[in-house]
Amino acid sequence: MNCPVTFLTAAAGFAADRVLKHFASRTEGKRSYLKDKVTVKKTTNKGFAMNKCEGRRGLVVAVSVVAFLAVVFLFGITLKDDKYRSKRPGAALLLAGALGNCYDRIRHGVVIDYISVAPLKRIFFNLADVLIALGSLLYAFL
Known about the structure:
Blueprint (H helix, E strand, L loop, with lengths): L2 H24 L3 E4 L4 E8 L11 H24 L7 H21 L2 E7 L9 H15 L1
Antiparallel strand pairs: 1-2, 2-3
């Protein structure tokens, strides 16, 4: 993956996350799909995963910004050195997801989550979370 495509991938991931969060924030109630295997419902997360440190907004924002800056640094390394070319897709997805959730925490004070899948019905997540998980796996194994 060349540098412009890597940037476009990150930008597209961030944009898709913003669009889905926008629609989720305007959706009322709960919808189920695939015989109740997938649930779509707007929830908010004031902390880290599953609302850890929910009452400590300053800490949550600070850690999110530091994590985002670490991802930016990692992204820069993968773009600068061609020996890391295979890691660029993972870095792009990581950057998109980290930016998406960090943006929400800074701008809104919460992260909008909206999807849950069986058997983890009580855990809601968003596209940024998926991009972070997928990007981490790609970065680690490519």
